Amino acid sequence: MIDNILKIEKTGKILLRFGMIAYFLFIGTLNFNNGFVGGEDLIQTVILLLLVVGTSSMLLLHFKFPKIGAIGGGVAALLFLITVVYLGYLEISEKIPFSMIFLHIIKDILLFFATLILTGESLKEMVREKITKPFPVR
After folding, report:
1. pTM higher than 0.85 for the full model?
2. In the chain, pLDDT over 90 holds for what percent of residues?
3. HEC profile of 19-87
4. Who is most buried in 21, 23, 35, 39, counting CB within 10 A?
């Protein structure tokens, strides 16, 4: 029974990781498809695209290099936290009702919590690898 519960948890975390990667890639694709008018928009789009693709790659590398996965989870959490603060500030300055602000930022708050879970999973995997590492032979 416990093995089944652990399998469900592991499957859920794998689906969460791939869902987060797909979400980041979708954001990058959406921003890239919006088009750009001048050189300044092009630079911002390229920077955002590199940040999104880099974060997705780091999240994916968790399976081979948990340390890079932990860094990717931290970067993703930071991106979602910045998004929450930025959107909240913009909408508060426009005097939008709090209930509407909450509806706009709740997704990013939940994604922030999800990236914390993925970061913890990568850190746990780093510890597991260190504990199960064979002793050096002299």
Report:
1. no
2. 41
3. HHHHHHHHHHHHHHHCCCCCHHHHHHHHHHHHHHHHHHHHHHHHHCCHHHHHHHHHHHHHHHHHHHHHH
4. 21
